Amino acid sequence: MDGTDSLARFLSKVPLVDGVYQLSPPRAFQHAEEQYDERRPPENCTLEFLRRQGGHMLSFFRDQGYQPGQPVLEIGCGPGWVSAALATQREFGHLLCTDPSPAFTRIARGRISQDLAQVSRVDYGMLLAEEVDVLPPGSVALIVLRSVLHHITGVPEFLRRCAAVLPPGGLLICEEPFYDGYVLMGFLAQCIPDALAGAGCPCTPEERALVDTLVATMQFYARRDVDKSQAEDKHLFRPDELLLQGREVGLDLTCFPNWYFTVDPETNRKNRARHFQRFFANYIDRCMHWPPEFCARVIAVTGRYFDYFVPLETETAPGPYFFGTFVFTRRR
Ligand SMILES: C[S@@+](CC[C@H](N)C(=O)[O-])C[C@H]1O[C@@H](n2cnc3c(N)ncnc32)[C@H](O)[C@@H]1O
User: Fold this and answer.
1) Ligand 1: which residue has its CA nearest to atom 9?
2) 104 CA from centroid of ligand 1 (Å)
3) What is the pLDDT of residues 183-232, one digit of tens each?
4) How many independent structural domains does the chain possess?
5) Buried b (16+ CB within 10 A) or exposed e, 57-86
6) pLDDT at 170
C-alpha cells in the first residue's frame, strides 16, 4: 500500500464537516482572516500566476526528490494561495490542504474551483501542526509550509512528528523568516525617526508609535528568553540550529537563503540585487500595514543607508539572509 492509499483510507474514517476533515480542534488566527491578504496585488491572483507558481514549486520539489503522484500535505494553508498553485499541477498526487482556522479552511476551499484543480484529489482539513502525527506513518511524501513554522510552539517536537509521518526519503519543505535579517530590520528601524527629522519631515506621534511597534516586534521575534505560547508569530530561524534539531530526529537539512520556492531560479537570483531595501519596503507595507504615504517617506529618507549593501547583494552573492527555504529530507 503506498501513501495515497493509506491517506485516503485514513481520511475515510475522519469526521467531515462542511467539506473539511476534522483532524484537530478549530483554532482561529489571531488577526482577521478576511483581511489577511487585502494588500495582495491583483496580478498575483490570476489563474495564470497560480499555474506559474505551481510549475515552479513542482520543479523545485522534484529537484529535492519529490516523486510525481505522491500525496502532499500543506500545513497552515491560510487563504490557500500556495494550495491553489499546487492544485494546478496534475503531477502532484492527492493534496490535503489544512489549517487550524475554520475561516481560512473555508476561504482556501472556495479558492480551488473544479476548473483550477488538476490533481487527482484535493481535500481540506482542520489541523494543528503540533498534531501532524494523527496522519498514519508514511502517508504523505511531502509536507509543505509557507510562513507557518514560525507560528509553531515546539519546533523540535514538530520536526520529530513530521519525521514519523514521512516515509524514508520524504520531504518537509518550509519557507520561513531568518533571524539575522529580521534583527537587522529592527536595528535599522530605530534610525527612522532621526532620519525623518534630519530630512525636515519628522514623524507624527502616530507614526512614531508604528516605528516603535516594528522595533519591539523584531526584538520579540528574536528573543528566546520569553514565553511565546500565547503569541501568534513566535520564532526566527538560524540554519545551524535547525540543522541540529533535524539531525536529532532523522531529518537532513538543506538550506536555500533568500529563495522563494514559488519562484524560478533565475528570478530568485535577480531578486538578490537591492534585496534588503525591497524586502524592508514590502514588510512595512504588507506585514506592518503602514499607511502608503508613510512607507514612501521612510523609504526615501532611509535610501542612502541601503547603499552600503549594493556590493554585498549581487546575483552571485545573497547578502544578509532575511527568509529562505528549508528542505528537510527523512533519512533512508
Ligand atoms: C502567515 S500565515 C501563512 C498562510 C499561508 N501559508 C500563506 O503563505 O499564505 C500563517 C498560517 O499558519 C496557520 N497557523 C498558525 N499556527 C498554526 C499551528 N500551530 N498549526 C498549523 N497552522 C498554524 C495560521 O492559521 C495561518 O493560516
Assistant:
1) 78
2) 9
3) 999 999 999 999 999 999 999 999 999 999 999 999 999 999 999 999 99
4) 2
5) bbebbeebebeebbbbbbbbbbbbbbbbbb
6) 98
The Cβ of residue 44 has, within 10 Å, a number of other Cβ atoms equal to: 11
Q: Domain range holding 203?
A: 179-233+273-314
Give the residue, by CA position, lying nearest to ligand 1 atom 15.
151
CATH number at residue 87: 3.40.50.150
Residue 98's closest CA among 120, 118, 122, 117? 122
Domain identity same for 252 and 285 = no
Ramachandran angles phi, psi of 188, nearest 5° = -60, -40
Q: Determine if ligand 1 sits within 6 Å of the CB of residue 147.
A: yes
Residues 153 and 7 in one domain: yes
Whether residue 158 contacts residue 145, with contact meaning beta carbons closer than 8 Å, is answered with: no
Residue 141 CB less than 6 A away from ligand 1: no
Whether pTM exceeds 0.70: yes
106 and 223 in a common domain: no
**Which residues sit opposite 125 in a β-bridge?**
21, 98
Same domain? For 122 and 204 the reply is: no
Residue 38: pLDDT band with limits 50, 70, 90? confident
Nearest protein CA to atom 1 of ligand 1, as residue: 147
156, 227: one domain = no
CA atoms of 218 and 210, how far apart (whole Å): 13
CA neighbor of 179 nearest in space, from 99, 284, 257:
257
One domain for residues 256 and 224: no
Any atom of ligand 1 within 6 Å of the Cβ of 100:
yes
Residues 195 and 60 in one domain: no
Q: Is the predicted pLDDT of residue 2 greater than 70, yes or no?
A: no
Give buried/exposed letters for 204-218 (b at 16+ CB in 10 A, else e): eeebeebbeebbebb
Does one domain contain both 83 and 150?
yes
- Beta bridge partners, 173, equal 144, 327
